[in-house]
Amino acid sequence: MRRILVAIAGGVLITSFAATPVVAAPQQSPKSVSYNEKLRCDEGSPLCAEPVDSIGRDGSYTGHDEPSTVFYSNKTGAGTNAQYQLTIPKDPIIPPKQDGTGGTFNFQNRIAFWFGIALCDNQSAPEFTHAPCVAGSDRNISDNPDPTKPDYVGRHPGGAFMELQFYPPGWAPFQNGISCDARKWCAAMAIFSFNRDMNAGVDNNAACVAAVGLEPANFAFITKDGKPQAPAAPLSQTTASFTPDPAHDLFMNAGDRIAISIHDTPAGLVTALNDHSTGQSGFMTASVANGFAQVNFQPTATTCSQSPYAFHPMYATSSEHTRVPWAAHSYNVSFSDEIGHFEYCANIANGTCTSDPTDPGSPDADDVGCHTPAESLRIKIGGCTGSDADFDGPSYLADWPGSNPNPFLDRLLHPRSVEFTSPTFNGGRNYDRVAFEADMPRIEAADFGGKCDRTTGTNCVNPPPGAAFYPLFSIRDNNDLQGGGNDGCVWQLGGTHIPGTTNTFGGTTTAEFGPLLFLDYPAAGFKPNHITNDFRRVIPNPCRR
User: How far is 528 from 379, CA to CA, in rounded Å?
Assistant: First the structure.
């Protein structure tokens, strides 16, 4: 099953700009299918941030599997800036085959991996107040379950979530697929908001729901000059917004070593990439000048509008209490891999799998969003990108780096792991704690076809039912496998047999991701909904330098 898309610290007021709102254009005819429509979160776009409640048609869930690491520090600045060193993962020597007997490429393990941070958006859920959000302030923390208290979770300021997403090459291209190039990676800034009054159970007006759904997204590729190649705002996006431009966008090679900086500026949040391997760089600023905007929450209006808006980090720190209360995950500063978005399909008609010899049960409900071999930029195999609800695709097989104990075979058949350092902030300060968090309870719930009772935790299991394998995080001491240099301790994702691994944190996903996490979410009637969406385990950061 699939999804795709999508100096202020210390109390500066962030307000929307007094400008003429942009009003939604009429909807296109159903026969005219654009990529902008494909990105809609309520229609299963695989790059969207995962909401706590169902937003799909007829109550069907829209979500995906996201094993994550979350970084915590109670020091001011930990929630407003983060710097990483990343090594882009390589694909194996042996290419994939249609019958599943070849190698496994990155696009089969993941639809994207990303680095995230929580942002202000006073037009986004919980929608208790539209007062300006005070950026970079822990006064925004509101997670009390008592509705009579001023820090009740339902009184939380409106929040958005930014994902700096990296897209693997080699398969079906943007606009409808996931690859920017046959061999090169690209990245984008995607900011997700949620237009629902969670305390009253009221959604935005029908025109907005029709135009952008309940989870509108600002989207812009990382470009070499820092200017969007096309409109970024939800109501303004065009097909060009999702069409990679090699002359304008930053493309990266597998194995390149990238310095990542996520930091705030007076103009808006900046995501900057410096490719040490090629000398190229790119960035994007979530600013008014770059055309970023918030969709206005006006549930009684007859038209949909947006206002220019500069997005800034919500919190001063990053802790167990800094979260976006409409999201299924509990995090702020974080890394996540979006897995479970590829299944083989040999016979495809109208974007749907009709049959596949490798899966005797096909087609099933997750065999959608499919692409024929002819659509691929490089690897000529057919497959589907819908969310893998029965957990039987390559993401849930021993097709990850380090899943084969024979290192020679592992390298022949499996991609290298993504490698990244623990983030630092304020010029090199380390985060004190790290959490392993996986949203298995959310994707095992009834609206995803499972049996997990999120209220009690009954039948919420790790690993997911039907999964023959599930990747886990581990660390190694240096980065010499992929590009030389030494970053000290680096994080990786896959099996337990990645050469050089020094700690697998229990060696199983059950041990690593820990117990069920129950949190309070705003709910209709101004009372909390106490449920589980994740497994989470918090430990001291083993990669502090």
Answer: 48
